[in-house]
Amino acid sequence: MLIVVFIEVSKWGLISNEQVNFVLEVMEECYKRLEPHDVSLIDLLLFDTSSNLEVFIINEYQRLKINSQRFDENFPAMHDAWFGTPRIIVCFERLDKLEKIIQRAIIQHEVAHSILHGSPLYYIFTLPQILIQIRERYNLSQEYVVNLLYLISIAVKDYQVTKLLINKGFKEDQRAYIKTLLKPSNEDLTSWIIAKNKPKIQILCLISRLKDLSCAAPFIMDEVYHNEIKEEIKLSLAYLPKEYANKLFEIISKYHQLIGDDTFKAIENVTYTLSKELIEPILNS
Length: 285
Known about the structure:
61% helix
């Protein structure tokens, strides 16, 4: 049965009809190709500038009393479902700097989130027992372990999104996006220099890279791109000490065993693996 998805558009700032139509066309095509799904209504929030988006996001975090630190400052588009209805947020100042194929891929990525994670349940997680134990054993703050869980949860969800998209025929668009995504940012490089001899900060730096790596991870199993993507992943981690780069690669290579359709179970599995193979060894060093 054909599902009609109603997209409620809200705009902040000066946004052209051409910009709106581009996003709507990509979304509508994506929803059709990703059927079957149960999305019938989605809020689309469009912002002309980063500054307008920042004001909105800060107010939202305060209103919702979200405790995790923000890690989305440079994202061209985002998805959430805090109010029950999935919503996609797009910033054209960021999006318009990118090639069209990457713009499409980013919007496809958020559409897939709305299908897989379009409920508030996917944004509120109970702290896994392993993180409670680590918090107590190493005298870590609640805020610190909540940030770890947040980063792990978005990594798991991003893996599920890429896997769905490439299985539904969006491989070329997603491949182009991930090729750009894998390149470490200046912030990644600078943060690692600052983290020298600071285990807790090192862990946050490493776990924060999981979002990019997790988007790429489904291609490790791809019959066409597996060798190419493995080399690109390794190159993207070349700024890290070899032991940490190798461990991150080893963990994401096991995602197909750790991550299934159950997002909550997947987060538990990945959190446990990261805790035992990366987080605790660094804290013990």
